[in-house]
Design goal:
The chain is an alpha/beta fold. The protein has 17 helices and seven strands.
């Protein structure tokens, strides 16, 4: 049986992919202690099963499988990781652990990383564009996020602390605050509780899109929306294409940067939250200082992510043509695109766990081809 259990809950865009890949690839080495990751590098389905409207039978089955994994391992530390845990109520996780893994009462630690508000807003915008959840201009998204829990850290993470107490740890995703100035190193230092270890370079995972690439993804996702492609398929398809773009390009190109007027709005909405989060969790003004630094780097004029401002008419036409092919050639079936996404990322074990019939396997192969073709154009 595992001696200890660590649940890594994200936050999104805080190095989760690099952490998960390092675990899956065994890039760490410790002579005194052992780690085993759960059955999947990203336990998305496990985390989503805890949503308020989730299926109780599905939740019970997934946590029973997790309990079986935990009891079968002899490692010092077991790690369960998914940034989707950050979207659920902490009480739901606590209840599931009490029911299915009661022997780990007092042996579970919860870890989250939190990114400074201005950086998180930019990354959230890029993420939502590439997954088709938001395809409009940045200021419109900021208005909606002002009351959203995703960037109101103090309230959200205080709820986790209230449920898990000292077993919950929040770390600032700020280079100078991280052990060895690196989030992956910081993560393993946390899991191993300070034991000496070495770490191979995991490389860059989930590379950020540049300005022109974001504009291209806006055109791509808008076309999918016009063709009534489901939200889940748009999200997986966009993530797969963006991953392939990141593998093709070694540089991000021109970066998306906040202009002063928009940054002042970010400051207005989240300055108090930064101050409270620093005071409650860090006793050092990591988030507030980051806001101050962002203000010194603000550009005077906004950068447009509209396709017509970043791409030629011919480029837009090509992107839209490929989007139409993706929307019409492959069935609007989430599991086909999830399987394709796993293959493209090199997650063969995860891909094999998705049951596909012969027609769906053929569709998966076509989806992989289309993703690669689209990514080459967008890159």
């Amino acid at each position: 049986m595992l001696s200890n259990l660590v649940i890594h809950i994200g936050d999104p865009k805080n190095g989760s992919s690099s952490i998960q890949n390092s675990l899956a690839q065994g890039l760490w080495q410790c002579d005194s202690r052992t780690i085993q990751m759960s059955n999947l590098r990203n336990e998305v389905a496990l985390a989503k099963s805890l949503r308020r409207k989730g299926d109780a039978d599905n939740r019970n089955a997934r946590f029973a499988e997790l309990a079986e994994w935990a009891r079968a391992s002899e490692a010092d530390y077991g790690v369960v990781s998914s940034e989707f845990f950050s979207q659920i109520q902490p009480e739901a996780l606590a209840e599931a652990l009490d029911e299915h893994l009661p022997e780990y009462a007092g042996k579970v630690r919860i870890l989250a990383y939190v990114r400074p508000h201005a950086e998180r807003f930019v990354s959230t915008y890029a993420q939502r564009v590439k997954t088709g959840l938001f395809v409009r201009d940045m200021p419109l998204l900021l208005s909606g996020l002002s009351s959203d829990l995703s960037l109101n850290y103090h309230r959200r993470f205080s709820a986790w602390k209230a449920v898990f107490g000292e077993k919950f740890s929040l770390r600032p995703f700020v280079r100078d605050a991280l052990n060895n100035n690196d989030v992956v190193y910081d993560f393993f230092n946390f899991v191993l509780e300070g034991a000496h270890f070495s770490l191979k370079d995991p490389g860059v995972a989930n590379r950020s899109l540049g300005l022109q690439q974001i504009a291209a993804m806006r055109a791509f996702q808008k076309t999918l929306i016009r063709h009534k492609v489901s939200r889940n398929v748009r999200a997986v398809m966009g993530g797969a294409i963006a991953h392939c773009v990141g593998e093709i390009t070694s540089a991000e190109g021109e970066k998306l940067t906040l202009d002063r007027a928009l940054l002042e709005k970010v400051d207005e909405f989240f300055r108090d939250d930064a101050r409270k989060t620093d005071s409650t969790f860090f006793n050092t003004p990591w988030l507030e200082s980051s806001l101050d630094k962002s203000m010194t780097k603000a550009i005077s004029e906004p950068k447009s992510t509209r396709p017509r401002d970043q791409l030629s008419p011919e480029q837009i036409q090509e992107v839209e043509y490929l989007a139409v092919r993706c929307a019409t050639v492959i069935d609007d079936n989430p599991k086909i695109w999830r399987a394709a996404n796993n293959v493209l990322r090199g997650y063969e074990a995860e891909a094999e766990r998705i049951p596909l019939n012969e027609n769906e396997k053929l569709a998966q192969e076509k989806a992989i081809v289309l993703c690669r073709e689209t990514s080459r154009l967008i890159a």
